Amino acid sequence: MPKTAEETIGNAKKMTIICTKGSLDWAYPPFILGTTAAAMDVDVTMFFTFYGLELLKEKLNLQVTPLGNPAMSMPMGGMHMSMPNIVGMVPGVTAGASIMMKNLIKKKGVASIEELREAAVLSDVRMIACQMTLDLFELDKKDMIDEIEIGGAATWMESALESDINLYM
Amino acid sequence: MADETLDAKGLNCPLPILKAKKALKGMGDGQTLEVLSTDPGSIADFQAFCRTTGNELLEHSEAGGIYKFLIKRVV
Questions:
Q1: Which domain holds residue A28?
Q2: Which pairing describes strands B4-8 and A165-168: parallel, antiparallel, or unpaired?
Q3: Which residue from A35, A40, A122 is facing B53, i.e. has the nearest CB?
Q4: Taking CB atoms and an 8 Å limit, are B53 and A10 in contact across chains?
Q5: How far from the centroid of its chain's Cα atoms is residue A38's Cα?
Q6: In this complex, how many residue pairs, one in chain A and one in chain B, have their CB atoms less than 8 Å apart?
Q7: Would you list the domain boundaries of chain B?
Q8: What fold does the segment set B4-72 form as a domain?
Q9: Is there a domain that residue A106 lies in?
Q10: What is the pLDDT along chain A (169 residues), one digit of tens a residue?
Q11: What is the DSSP secondary structure assignment for residue A41, as one 8-state letter?
Q12: Distance between CA atoms of residues A76 and A16, nearest Å
């Protein structure tokens, strides 16, 4: 998207983020850094590939799982509760943990991923969906938000080569 | 007295910064924005934000767990 003169003066630095994960906890770092960088006048490109494509779906239903994540302990009644892997395998535990996490997010005044993604759109963050993974997982661009473009490795490379910061998440 | 006030109390990182940026965008050169926040991380963040974007952090203070920032919009 072409920038106005005002937007290009000052800090004309660039950043790219490759987003490869589609769980609730992994959705935060790229969207927090992407939107904050844009707020600090950085030109941001986010490239979504593999499970990261989940983050571009019109309707988000992101989950977090305690399975295989011994560091995940949730505050509960003044204490912290973590779950042994065997409990994480029980049906419904992932859904329960996701609901708990979303409640915490709300209670603590943390932005939802929907809000951050909307902020990214409004601040002209360029969001590219990986064509190859769309094919691989038989995903349809129609199920994604409108503000994305489609591209591949070379599209990211071009941005990355002129960027000051390139992150992989 | 600031030209505009942004109440970001109760919001967590990065919302105070995102909302401040949005407010500043609609303001003219030299106008001032007062931001109220309860996020302790915003002390370091607003200083970094202002240093990077060229807007001027005129003052910041804390009283009763509420942080107050006065930012001058520099175009």
A1: 13-168
A2: unpaired
A3: A40
A4: yes
A5: 15
A6: 45
A7: 4-72
A8: Translation Initiation Factor IF3 (3.30.110)
A9: yes
A10: 445 544 554 458 999 999 999 999 999 999 999 999 999 999 999 999 999 999 999 999 999 988 888 888 888 888 998 888 888 888 899 999 999 999 999 999 999 999 999 999 999 999 999 999 999 999 999 999 999 999 999 999 999 999 999 999 9
A11: T
A12: 37
